Amino acid sequence: NVYRARGDLKTAAFYYQAGADVEPTAALVRTELAWMKVLLGDWPGAKAEYETAIALQAGNPIGHLAFGNGWLAMGYPDSARAEYNKAIPLDRSSAAPYLALGNLEQANGNLSGAAGYYQQAIAADPTSVTAVLSLGGVQEAQGQTDAALATYQKAGQINPGQSEPLLAHAALTLSRNPADATTQTAAQAEILQAIAVEPGNPDGPLQLAGLYTSQNKLDEARAEIDQAIALAPGYSAGYVARGRWWSAQAKFDEAIADL
Question: In whole angstroms, what is the distance from residue 75 CA to residue 77 CA?
Answer without folding.
Answer: 6
